[in-house]
Amino acid sequence: MGETKKVILRVKRQAGPKHAPRWEEFALNWRPAMNVIICLRDIAENPVTRDGKKTTPVTYESNCLEEVCGSCAMLINGKARMACSALVDSLPQPIRLEPLSKFPVVRDLAVDRSFMFESLKRVKAWIPIDGTYDLGEGPRMAPETQEQAYPLSRCISCGNCLEVCPQVNENNAFVGAAIISQVRLFNMHPTGAMHARERLEALMGPGGIADCANAQNCVKACPKEIPLTESIAEMNRQAWKQALLGWLFG
Amino acid sequence: MREPKIIVVGGGLAGLMATIRVAEAGVPVELFSIVPVKRSHSVCAQGGINAAKNTKGEGDSTDKHFDDTIYGGDFLANQPLVKRMCEAAPGIIDLLDRMGVMFNRTTEGLLDYRRFGGTLYHRTAFAGATTGQQLLYALDEQVRRYEADGKVNKFEGWTFLSAVIDDGGICRGICAMDMRSTEVKTFPADAAIFCTGGIGAIFGLSTNSVVCTGSAQSALFQQGVDYANGEFIQVHPTAIPGEDKLRLMSESARGEGGRIWVPRKPGDTRPPNSILESERFYFLEEWYPKYGNLVPRDIATRAIHRVVFQEKLGIHGQAAVYLDLTHIPREVLDRKLEGILEIYEKFLGINPRKEPMKVFPGMHYAMGGVWVNNEDQATNVPGIYAAGECEYQYHGANRLGANSLVSCIFGGGIAGPAAVKYARGLAQGCESTPASAFERERKRQAAMNEALIRQEGGENPIAIWRAMGELMTEHVTVTRYNKNLQQVDAKLRELTDRFRRINLSDHTLWSNQTLNFARELGNMLVLARVITLGALARNESRGAHYKPDFPERDDANWLKTTRANYSNGEIKLTYEPVDTSLIPPRPRRYDVAR
Ligand SMILES: Cc1cc2nc3c(=O)[nH]c(=O)nc-3n(C[C@H](O)[C@H](O)[C@H](O)COP(=O)(O)OP(=O)(O)OC[C@H]3O[C@@H](n4cnc5c(N)ncnc54)[C@H](O)[C@@H]3O)c2cc1C
Ligand code: SF4
Ligand code: FES
């Protein structure tokens, strides 16, 4: 038997938010169907760099390991994607792992994405039900409406669409495509539509939809293939309509 | 009147529902979760949620749902609460619908229902093949609304370490660790509701998410909260084998017509699509003509093991069988199962619309869990409640598919108000608990962390975890022998000794994931023993618990709940009767009509 095939990994390490980043390289034993999370676990089991130096396990976020929880977003060979579904055999080596750059680094590959959850609050991304008491069935909905809305409701808040957006930067509080698309989802629901105005107002405020410069990177980066540009176009229409009505009757 | 304060630990379906109910009662909630609650394991649930809405003219009823659940659970569940759950289920679907869950619809705009295992009715509401995600988001959004109103305060990225229990044995709050700063802190509360989910990590590989370790349940157990029916572990028949996770292929694949088969000829190396119909062995359909591919999970899992290990008919001689969807129209697959087909395609690079999937059973669900009463989710320690997968109440010896989501929401929905009622009725709230009680617990937990950080042993926590997982999977899942179970217990003790000599290889105090994992591992080792000892003692076969040496269900001796408790470092098993007051136990057989 020849020498075992290796997977070469370069990981950008950062001990904490205020520490300087540095790179470490690892050589791991290749196995079939390996993904990036498996590589990171290998490192945790034997935290030694390629040149034999002892190091610490890499800090990163993960949970579902099937691309539905949104935890494990990172830059893999410079591209924002989910580590759990990034198969080693489909990646050129050395595989470079870096934290998402548009969010504050916590440690190594883990970043703080609470901005996204705060934005969901801002735009009131919920159906304001009267209570959990038994109030009968929900509104009927045409299957076509469901088929349009369901893909939007699969957003896992991974942040990839923010990562690739040139408008998301230090000088700008742009909420990003995910949030705009969520507003569309809630405005589509029969009950949600009753409160569409509130959500639109939030979306028309600072950091809102007007900040979108139509780069269209978001839709390509979304692991759930959410039609983000379509959502942005639709919300622009709704926002214009509301602005116009406000101007006419306001 | 003083305003009580309630803590919820865990923000999956159960925890979020409990939170909503407490907040709705006007009581402030502190919600703790390791991961941001929107990333909880419940998002993995694929197939759907059960409720007997009888929308297809089949004559389904909540009574039939109740009977299917009890029968499917092999009569080990206490019946009155299960009945209440089945009666509440249609209302739960209505509520979720009102919250905006994008359930699949019929042409009339009503909710659509599919079939699932262990029933003959279309009883399962679904949102594509990502139902859990959709339900979790709906509850997450309602909680966010309360959060925006200042009624809920989230502590995401915090891990629960222990309860604060006063000298009178009453829970007065919790002790938790900020996983970033590794700061250990106590939080006073009048009641705490635990909704910390599954325990898959104890088996190394499972269909569960990474944080499903059962660590919180074990920590509570070690503080005197009893644990029930630990030995009942569900192994799902159809998972995709993998090195990091056994990714589930939901039962909905079979609910929509998917068929399980192997080539009749042992070791047949031809590609599946070139094997003729007559050369295929649809063993579930042959052995269980009435339920066919939709027999309950324990039955399907054992059948697959039999075909693979005894009849040596696994695909290419390997531990795998085909799950075939290729005969189902593409349009139906994409509309109803896309989410799971995507998983297979993404992780294996094979299109399951064109080629049968290769699957094998994988550890999936814990029927057992924290002991709670038959009324309102209270544990044996005053002030501690539990709901969701972490408790034991609803599924007996085997859970039916799509019954967990409903039990989580139902259980969380009663735990919330029950905790509020308890807290309001307390003569003395947590504010009158002496500060020393909190400080004592904080110090104890901080000292455990410091010891782990400083320790310079030679053992690696991941290696110990893997060893534990392999032992548990091999001997404490599908087929159990007493001799092996005894050896497992001895080996778990050895692993516990090795655990005392672990080296974290990360001795820093910022966002140290190894530290947290080590804490979890210590707790997993204890719960692994509870499961093993429960299995060892139960000399019968019932539901998911199967011993070839005791192949029959033995109601005379074993129609009883295992209740483990912990004192002075010892695990003790006691037993209590099952409430079978509503449906008299009868033999459970799926090969003939009932
Ligand atoms: C792949 C898969 C598919 C499934 N499909 C279905 C289905 O179709 N239908 C069905 O009915 N059931 C299904 N199930 C089962 C169902 O998903 C789970 O039983 C259910 O989601 C559990 O919900 P929960 O609220 O109890 O816990 P979880 O959703 O697991 O949430 C647990 C919460 O506790 C937190 N937590 C855990 N430990 C700690 C700690 N120490 N400190 C702080 N927080 C902690 C976590 O962060 C999380 O927020 C499926 C399960 C799997 C694995
Ligand atoms: S829209 Fe897509 S890329 Fe953006 S957060 Fe949601 S899932 Fe991620
Ligand atoms: S771990 Fe959940 S998306 Fe990757």
Q: What is the CATH H-level superfamily of the domain at 436-560 in chain B?
A: Fumarate reductase/succinate dehydrogenase flavoprotein-like, C-terminal domain
CATH homologous superfamily of the largest domain in chain A, by name?
A: Alpha-helical ferredoxin
Q: Give the distance, in angstroms, between the N- and C-terminal Cα atoms of chain A.
A: 79 Å
Just name the CATH architecture of the largest domain in chain A.
Answer: Orthogonal Bundle
CA radius of gyration of chain A: 21 Å
Shape call of chain A: elongated
Helix content estimate of chain B: 25-40%
* Number of separate structural domains of chain A: 2
Query: Helix/strand/pairing class of chain A, anyone?
Result: alpha+beta
Strand order of the largest sheet of chain B: 13-12-17-16-14-15
CATH topology of the domain at 436-560 in chain B, anyone? Methane Monooxygenase Hydroxylase, Chain G, domain 1
Share of helix of chain A, binned: 25-40%
Please outline the major beta sheet of chain B: 6 strands, antiparallel
Number of helices of chain A: 8
The CATH architecture category of the domain at 436-560 in chain B equals: Up-down Bundle
Task: Report on the biggest sheet of chain A.
Answer: 5 strands, mixed
The hetero molecules present are: flavin-adenine dinucleotide, iron/sulfur cluster, FE2/S2 (inorganic) cluster
Mean pLDDT of chain B: 96
Give start-end ranges of low-pLDDT stretches of chain B. Answer: none
